[in-house]
Every structure is written in structure tokens, then in C-alpha cells.
Amino acid sequence: MTFDKKAIDAKVVESLPFSHRWHNRFHLEMPFGLINDPNGLVYADGTYHIFFQWNPYGCEHKNKCWAHTETKDFIHYKTPELALWPSDDHDKDGCYSGCGTLEEGQVKVLYTCNAKNDGVRTPAQRFGRLAADGSVEKEDIIIPDAPSGITGHFRDPYLFHRGGRHYLVIGAQAEEEPLRGTALIYEETEAGWESLGEIKTRLAIDAPFGYMWECPNLLKFGSHDVLIFCPQGLAARAHDRQNLYQAGYIAGHLSLDAMELLQHTKFQELDRGFDFYAPQVFQHEGRHILLGWMGMPDRDEDYPTKTAEGEGWMFSLTMPRVLTLRQGHIYSQPAKELRALRVEETPVDIDVDSVASAQAPLFDGSEAILDVTLGEAREVTLTVEYGLEKLHFHYDRRSQLMTIDRTGLKNGGKGRRTFPLYAEKHLAFQLFIDRTAVEAFLQHGEEVASLLVFPEKNIRPSLAITSDAPMESISGRIWELDAFRFEA
Ligand code: FRU
Questions:
Q1: What is the CA radius of gyration of the chain?
Q2: pLDDT in tens, 244-255
């Protein structure tokens, strides 16, 4: 396969603006091809650089390249371009995920070269530099292969710094029976990058915590360290781990001497929706800004855009969300920059006293902040209605469970997700409703859920709130939201 950057970039330009009504307006996506993990996130001199996995040649998980865009405000973006593509024996089977960094003012990336020969994978970790023409110039391979005891599933390096030294955390699979997911740490020394081995946790004491960990991030929040990773192979539980693969974290204290994350919390999911995986975090001036992939590997049948128009397209990225750690739990808030998308405001102030329902029309793109004072209601359902097709957020105050139900949609993935959410008197929603992407921030970011819905008919959605007994009041605001702008 050859990759002609000029031709591919020109095709992107020609295909914009998006025309199909399933294309989102304020979520990053591509006009054609399949995108997945955000990669190479780095802030450089006023600009956020965003790379992501992209197959420009179809909606299959192959031909893995990196696309690149940049933004100063998370509203105006440079039209995405092809930045990194397979070109030699090391990365001929894909330029897999990795991170970004800044070196002497220049944007650098570190990615996994994927090569498969006679069924044997050789993963190599290699640096590259973003050149003036928008392509990544490949540099040195720093780790040529998986270390002993680790299978060929060794990828997705993420750089972090402690005490003035540089480290990497890399997703891996231990070659054991059964296979075991893990993460390895490397330290930069004068002699090159040296393995410090696996980072120990209490997750895999009795049995492996999944068979593979993908896309690790190691973050610092004050005196706490957080390991984000994506374990594959965890069994579903009543209210957890409902997706095929998970994206979550443990918070504790990293000891590089003991090579252990000490006193860590239980594994918690970063997002409670159906379509969220492989997140990556920018670290800039104390802010932790996360972008996730709105999609799920090995669930292609849930995403009908594959055949929607022309060659089709697949997947989006989430909006940027800012993470904070409070008492071992990550809270997620939409980045404040996104407020600039707000066009028109409709106040919602309903004294529902004896009424048990309320209704509001939505826009082509909407944000709704709603605070429900529960009153006598024990069950409250917020519904996004697309004509007869309905997406429900159902809260049961007695069991303190939130259920997101998309069984009422004809196209795409269905099912329900139920998870604990504590609401005493108030239930707070902040919903972003794009054409197909929905992001719900609940109880001020205590939980967040990302999901995609593909309404059959071209109908403006509306919002309805109903309850089993009178609520006291519903107050808040609904905004029409503008679209992201792409510029040359
Ligand atoms: C996660 C992942 C990564 C890999 C990339 C390839 O979605 O499988 O582990 O680097 O996607 O596209």
C-alpha cells in the first residue's frame, strides 16, 4: 500500500464540509475512512496538537496512519491532514498509537511500529518529528522489540516525567498461561531507554486483570498518580464493565523504586457510555484534558456510517474534557472553551409542582444543563426523542442507579448501561447532543457517558422529562451549539 499525502489531503479538503446528517458538528471526525485512538496530544506555544489513528483507505481496521490537526481554542481546527503512514519494514503493518512531546519547541511523537511477518509481530517504539509540511519525519527506534516475557502485543507508549527524569509507560501482554495484561515502564538513561519492568498493582493478585492492556497514560494529580489503561478480557459485572473492552484507571502513589502503584483504588471506568475507548490526556498548565475515541474495537456492526454515504466513514473523537481527581475518583467536565460554541440560549424554568413532565425542543446541535429538584419523584426519565425513536436516561432514586437505554433506536448499537449514581435531592445533567454523538455529564461530572445514536429519520430531537410523582422543579438552560470550524 502506498500513501500519497498530497492526494489524500486534497481529498479531505474536497470532502468538506460534511454533508451527511449523521456527521457530527462538534466532534472531530473524518469525511472518509476509519478513525480510532487519539494520539500525540501535545500543547506547543499556544496550540494544541491532536493526532489520531486513521485508515484513509476504508472502514476497516487496517492501513493504520496518523492524521493531524491543531487548534488554539478547541473550536477552530486546522483541516486534518495525513501526518504519519507505514513506509518501511518496521511499520509496514501500521503506525500504531503513541504520544506527543515537545523538544526544543518542536513537536515530536513517539509511536509503535507494527510489523507482522509469518504471523509474528515485531513492535518497535520510534520517535518522529512534525515537519513544516505537516508530515512526521521518522527518527530513531528506541526500543526495537518486546522484551522477553512479553508477547508481540507491546504498544502505545506514553511519556511522563518524574524528578526531572523521563519515563515511558507501554501497554503489554505477559506471555503466560493464561495471557495477562500489564504495563511496562522504561527510563531514559545515557545508554538509551532501559526497561524497569512491569508496574506492579494489586489488580492481578489471583487472576489476570484482562489479557491485554492497551493505551496506558500515567498522570499526576497533586500527590496522587493515576494509571489510565484499557484492559481487554474483563468479564462484565452487574453495573460495571458492560462494554466489550474497558477504559478506566486506578489512582494511588507511584513508587519507581518499588515499581509499584501503591495504595491504589479499585479499577474505575472513565466513562459509562457505550462508545468510549483508548483515551489520551494532554497535560498543560495543571489541566488534564482528555480526548477519547467514540467507538469500540471489534463492534463494527454497531456503527452504520460505514455504508452511509459514498465510501462511508467510521467513528468520532469525544469533545475535550478536563479531569480532576477527588477522593480517588476522576470527575470529568467539558473543557470551558466549548462554551464559545453556544449560539442561542433558552432558559428552562419549570415549576412542576403537580406536573410530572416537561418538554423542550432541541437544535441541530445542543447543550442542555438541567437541574432537577426531585421533590416526590422516585423515578425520573430524561428522554431525547427523535420522533418515535427514543434515547432514555432513567434514574431510580431508591436503588440510586442510572440506566441509559438505547434499545429504542433502529440503527446501530443498542442495549442498556446501568451504573450507580448518587442523587439526594437534585439530579444534574449536562448533555451535549450532536447529530449522532451524545455526551452526558452527570452530577457535575461525577460520571460521564459517551454514546452514538443514528436516528432513522431526519428529525430535530426534543427533550422530555417525566417522573412517577411530581418533581419539585426543573431549571437550567438549553443552547443551540455551533459547529467546529475547519480552516486551511
Ligand atoms: C486501541 C488500539 C491500540 C493500537 C491501535 C491501532 O484501539 O488497538 O492498542 O495501537 O488501536 O489502531
A1: 22
A2: 999 999 999 999
